[in-house]
Amino acid sequence: MNTRSTMLRKSATAALAGAFALSLAACQAEEPTYEADAEDVSGGDLVVVPEGEGVEVELPETPMTPVAEGEEAAAEEPAAE
């Protein structure tokens, strides 16, 4: 009788170890990789995240107006006091 209970314990232990190994392998699936439709020319790291993740940014809605060529040169010269 003692041998039978020892065999049963070993079988149960082996079954639990197998189930644990399978569940651990399922948790370690590869993370998806994302490719950016951009070229990184800065020499740094280009970080890509799925759409919808990240920080919300509020951009100002300032209207842009073109500057005439004469006004551009005048703006670069320091004002005389």
Task: Describe this structure as you would to a colleague.
- The protein is mainly alpha-helical and 81 residues long.
- The protein has a domain at 1-28.
- The protein is built from two helices and no strands.
- The chain is rod-shaped, with a radius of gyration of 33 Å.
- The termini are far apart.
Summed over residues and divided by their number, the pLDDT gives a mean of 75
Helix content: 40-55%
**Which residue ranges are poorly predicted, with pLDDT under 50 across at least 5 consecutive positions?**
none
Taking all Cα atoms into account, the compactness measure Rg is 33 Å
N- to C-terminal distance? 108 Å
What is the SS-derived class?
Answer: mainly alpha
The biggest sheet amounts to: none
From the spread of the alpha carbons, the general shape counts as rod-shaped
The total count of strands amounts to: 0
Strand content: under 5%
Q: Tally the helices: what do you get?
A: 2
The topology string of helices and strands comes to HH
Write the SSE topology.
Elements: H1 2-27, H2 69-76
Identify the notable features of this structure and list them briefly.
rod-shaped; 42% helix; 81 residues; 0% strand; mainly alpha; 2 helices
